[in-house]
Amino acid sequence: MASSRDDMVNMAMARANVYGLLADVFREAPSEALLSKLEGPEFSGALHALNLSLDEVFASAPRTQLVEDLNLEYTRLFFGPGSYLSPHESMHVETRFSESNAFWGAQTVAVKKFMEAVGLKTGDSFTGMPDHISAEFEFMQRLLLKEVEAWAKEDHGLGTNILKIEKRFYEEHLSRWVPTFCDKVIDESGHPFCKQFCEVTKGFMDFEKETLQDLIGEVEEDDRLSA
């Protein structure tokens, strides 16, 4: 392969770590334990490996105050009272025939069917809808962990197939709404953490677009050369 087995394993694991981090933050208001994890070497290292950083986030307030502020901001942004931003794909993707966006709409069903077809689903502790942003990020994390296993076992065919599934889910779902959703959060939030974290999320979505295209191009070129 143009990239070595170790390169493919390391890249997939770094991407899996970032998706896991994103899922954790968007799943619920960040706790002090999660903030410590964000600053830890595993996740900060994964971000830096992808030319992303949350370094500015932790300069905004002392840790205890930051946790309290983020709990209030998370509730205000995603639950109300009053107007709020729903973190569900079905509420942000334009529907066919100008239908109103709705929970458990066509996009929710499409995400559910995609996950079921692949044979992966969210963890048993998750009780929300499959098109919640954290559920979609967790799905990609699980795909990537399967990809890590494939490259580690030198199963080129399986690794390539998983890459193609990741690219399809990115194109059909994540890319269609996550950047726009992040822009809305940036506009609505007054907290530096939320703004910076959404900027990092958008940066990672841009990274994924290029990375998936490049990686699939490499493995397909290897297939042609070895045919």
Can you offer a commentary on this structure?
With 227 residues, the chain is mostly helical. It has one domain: TorD-like. The chain is 69% helix and 0% strand. It has helices spanning 5-27, 32-39, 41-49, 63-78, 106-118, 133-152, 156-188, 192-226. The radius of gyration is 18 Å and the shape is globular.
What secondary-structure arrangement, pairings included, does this model have?
Elements: H1 5-27, H2 32-39, H3 41-49, H4 63-78, H5 106-118, H6 133-152, H7 156-188, H8 192-226
Strand proportion, as a percent range, falls in under 5%
- Globular, elongated, flat, extended or rod-shaped: what is the shape? globular
Terminus-to-terminus distance: 13 Å
Q: What is the overall number of helices?
A: 8
User: How much helix, percentage-wise, in residues?
Assistant: 55-70%
CATH class value: Mainly Alpha
Oligomeric state, counting identical vs distinct chains: single chain
What's the order of the H and E elements?
HHHHHHHH
CATH topology: TorD-like
Mean pLDDT: 87
Radius of gyration: 18 Å
Main sheet, how many strands, which sense, barrel?
none
Give the uncertain stretches in residue-range form. none
Count of separate structural domains: 1
At a glance:
This protein has 227 residues and is an all-alpha fold. The protein has 8 helices and no strands. It has a single domain, classed as TorD-like (Orthogonal Bundle).
Task: Note the main attributes of this structure.
0% strand, TorD-like, mainly alpha, single chain, 227 residues, 8 helices
